Amino acid sequence: MRTCVFFTTFAARYSKIMMKKVQTHTFWAVVTGASSGIGLRYATALARDYGYNIVLVSNQEKELTEASADLSKQYGIETRVLCLDLAAADAAEQVHTFCVENGLNVRVLINNAGMLIFDYLVNVSQQRLNTLLMLHVVTLTKLCQLFGQDMVRAHEQDASARGYILNMSSMSAWMAMPGIQCYNASKSYVLNFSKSLWYEMRPHHVHVLAMTPGSTNTGLLPFPDKWGRLLRIVGITMSPERLVQRALHVLFCTRRKRCMPGAWNYIIVPIINHLPDWLVNCLMPKIL
């Protein structure tokens, strides 16, 4: 009898906790690169598991509209769509102005938009190079500044207010690798910028987190299928769903500055960094 009462009480409390967790509210989350891939997973998890209304931002209007309608229908939250080129010089200002003019109380910023260039630097067009640097460095920095200012003001007006900023870096931020010289350098900027910002924003109850995942099974990395399967089997490649679940847990439930999910990655990074130059030179023509 006592056992039955215990489990009944436990079930009731667990149900209340879960209902509270997914209860929708008036707060908004901005997700860049939200039309597909990891960005769409972030938007979905924030709506489904945390009850946030979502501002979906990317340059793919059709995909954004479909994702917006689907999220609203499935999870009963509000959505807004902003289709623009995040590599534009004033992209961050456009995103922020859009939210202000629509009266959106943004408490979460997910800087996910990015791109990978896998080639020798001398072969890359200046347009593609500029796009990568704008996405990973300029727009991301400005978005953190603009929405960070709003989050600081919100906490000054209400001591219980909390803000959250998640910036997508990469495991490659610690590596010097031919073929992705601009990608890993820009991701190193994201990592160190986010860690520095963590200290500045902590007194204002704004949690800044740099995610540094390794290979993620999104189709972005130019590996053949056989290599992709091998990476998944040995646990080096992570599914987008698992990555996002881990990232949001660390963002909302811890005070950590960075997170590199996957135990394998802590082994791989120092191995790659200590590869002899002759071996890298031998492998480079086969990789690129």
Secondary structure: number of strands: 7
The main β sheet shows up as: 7 strands, parallel
Helical content (DSSP H or I, runs of 4+): 55-70%
> What is the CA–CA distance across the termini?
68 Å
Work out the strand percent. Answer: 5-15%
Radius of gyration: 20 Å
Question: Mean pLDDT, rounded to whole units?
Answer: 85
Q: Strand order of the main beta sheet, please?
A: 3-2-1-4-5-6-7
What gross morphology would you assign? globular
Number of helical stretches of at least 4 residues:
10
Order of helices and strands: HEHEHEHEHEHEHHEHH
Any low-confidence stretches, pLDDT <50, length ≥5? 1-21
- Given helix and strand content, the structural type is alpha/beta
Walkthrough of the structure:
The protein has 288 residues and is an alpha/beta fold. 55% of the residues lie in helices and 13% in strands. The protein contains ten helices and seven strands. It has helices spanning 2-22, 37-50, 61-75, 91-101, 126-157, 181-201, 225-233, 240-253, 263-273, 277-287, and strands at residues 27-32, 53-58, 79-83, 105-111, 163-168, 206-211, 258-259. Strands 3-2-1-4-5-6-7 form a seven-stranded parallel beta sheet, sandwiched between helices. Helix 3 (61-75) links the parallel strand 2 (53-58) and strand 3. Helix 2 (37-50) runs parallel beside helix 3 (61-75) and helix 5 runs parallel beside helix 6 (181-201). The longest helix has 32 residues, at 126-157. It is globular and about 55 Å long. The termini are far apart. The model is unreliable at 1-21 (pLDDT under 50).
